[in-house]
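Two proteins follow. First one:
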Amino acid sequence: MGGRGEPSTILDLIGETPVLPFRRIGKDLPYRILAKLEYLNPGGSVKDRIAPVMIDAAEKAGLLKPGGTIVEATSGNTGVGLALVAAVRGYRSVFVLPDKMSAEKIRLLRAYGARVVVTPSQLPPDHPMSHYSVARRLAKEIPGAYYPNQYENPGNPEAHYRGTGPEIDRQGGERLSAVVSTIGTGGTVSGIGRYFKEHRPSVRIVAVDPKGSVLGPYFRTRELVRVTPYLVEGIGEDMVPKTVHYQYIDEFVEVDDRESFGFARRLAREEGLFVGGSSGAAVAGLVRWLSGRPIPTESTVVVLLPDSGDRYLTKFYSDEWMREKGLLDDAGHASDLVRSKEGVPALVSVEPTTVVRDALELLRRHDVSQLPVLAGNENVGSVTEEEILQRALADETVLERTVSAVVGPPFPEVGADASLGELIVRLKESRAVLVRGPDGAEPTAILTRRDLFGFLSHSESPHAV
């Protein structure tokens, strides 16, 4: 955190992260944009900065003693920073995360020797099973435990007032006009904001909040709104932490998941910066804010990129995950899959009165393994080759009966405009889906897992933006 000499532990490498100018993103804007690469901290995120400051204060006050346990509620990154401190100083650690956080974060915390407790997402902060409440309870139950509580700990914004703010001041130069940062606990933007209000009050402090969080609306109205779900991790809140100091923030920009993940993927592909969704949100908010020309042209703007992309490989860096969430613009719809089917009619079906032997012949003729059973336009069931053959081995007379004797549950139904994400979800649960026409009345096609795989394997790798 202080001056750089020969480091004695990994903690000495926290801070003094570099800035890098964007070359492609925002190139049409008349500003110099510098990205501050906070993911180059040793634990991979901006949250490394606050961990030693909070623990130093606890040790000094006698709240944490040798052999003690650090317990914290976290979205993952503060936990990693605290796990670094625990590893270096010989503490045990327990971290409580909501279940929407990535598996990579959980594995990373365990790699540092931490115990991880996962709680349900979308619970009110005062709910006994929220990650806040569980962390507080564990801190009381575990002998010698200390709960830093980043949401109230003054060391959170203090770390950025002492470290991040002065670094940005030096790196931004004389033309620095604004600093853009995402907001969660508020420590980063509040600490930086306080520094600049005291030393260079002309520099604008812009907070970027995910849509669905309460922080941006509260800034405007001073009234709490109902939180709505969002997927980006580590930013936004369902309550206003004590570490959010609105008096040091000039403006709020709100961005959605599509923008956040889209810009994160662009940063990797266009700038070579492999970052997390909160970094994408920061850049999305930056571009939206700068598009309104709020500061003089030729000004310098610094945007903080909070964490690394390696903890989101199974989430928004996965095309499949993005499709499931409906966040790929050009992913396709059920009608696209129907048009791509080759060598088989779009819809092959049987009626309840069809003889099982004839149904089996249809299956083999069209090289399919299942058929819907339709009574007029009504979806009344399904038959599969596997079920017919199993039943026939036990009783060969089954082949001469009607399909009513071997009928299974009807396939789920979707409209022709169903997104690829919806199809992926449905086809994980069922081996096929029935597609109805635009008016929803007439069945028009059957789509299987094989159809989905064929469509995806022949499609170009999609881009999020």
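Second one, unrelated to the first:
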Amino acid sequence: MKKTVWISAVFSLLFLLGAEEQAVWQLGKQTFSPEGTGINAANGTVELNGTNAFTIPVSVLGDQKDYTIEFEIKRDPRADGRDRDHLIWMDFSDPEKRTGIRLRYYPPSYNAIWLHLNDGRIEYRNFLPDAKRFYRYTFVVKDRKLQVFRDGLLLILADTVKPSGKPIRFGEVKKQAVKPYQLRNLKIYKEAIFPKGFDPNVSRMRTCTGDQYTIQRADVKDPSLPRILVVGDSISMGYRSYITKHFEGKAYVDYWVGGTWFGKDAVKGENSDPKRGWRGVFSHGPYDVVSWNAMTLHMWNLNQAWRCPEESLEPNMMEMTAFLQKNFPKTKFIWVRCTPVRNNQPDGTPVLENPANDRVVKYNRIVDGVMKKRGIPEVDLYAIAVSRMGTVRKGWADTVHWDGATYQLFADAIIRELEKALAEQSRKK
């Protein structure tokens, strides 16, 4: 009897140490509620084509503190985006309560997902690189925080997922059919199961979303160190890593790629979109210094002129700078001037003589006046870029971005101003 109990205990221990966690729900093995037509999961695979979907109770996620949702999916190679073959893959969001997750995929040429999380949205491009194969996606929630993996590789490290009472729906019933997606090996666990080799204890930047913003936030281990926020467009994506590397161990650097649009009357009122965005971002602070370039290449683009009419630029910037200085008086703001828009001559030589760049020059000058009135220092990336025109290769189709050496120069100029601001902040403490 004792021997039997001992053997049973050993096998139980071995199971706990080495056995795989058991899925609480698995496609093809547990029941679900079909919607629309053509749902058949007898072989563990379903085809989602915009005319069908299926739901399962959200109770399979337990208390929604720790859980894992994993599936494999493949897109139709004919889906090219032109016939809007986008589809919600997974949805248990509650828009009214701003909770849960909604995952929508847009096929090529966009080839991106919009991950709606609570009241924010994360965009990730090149989500299904190859139409010829299945990709395994794993959504791991640990302590209510979300991580998204593709074939075991971390793609998104997100913030808290608020529990939702809505059922989990896979697929979407639309007015028209779309090119089909093949969904298989869908499994749900009540535990947070990370892919092999992933260490959740390593410090990483986390994507945090909210009303009118999505930021990447550093993992703060030492609250005594200062904090920096870099706000910008795709140009900032070229130089921000140099800033982080420079301040490693000396300050934490967060990123806000976006900074909201400034269309006509867009900033009016205390509840305007830009102001809600800034308040949301600063809820992740406080920040000692902010370098700021709010999507100017997009706002000042001739093809997107509606985003920032010339007559509204100065009053909008005056209002926003006043709002920032009033609401965040302990933060030092630095304005980053917009970089040029190039065009290529017939032989491919890059030049700056074009209407789009004329608009950039004019708008830079308008904002210069605002920053001077507000006492906000500037970093002149435009001048640095002009000095680098001789390094731009002939015929480069991308007329707004720059090479790595130029981005390093951009970062160096911003770092100098950031260090001056941090030194000033330190003297005040």
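SUMMARY FIELD: The longest helix spans residues 404-428. The chain has two domains: 21-189, 211-428.
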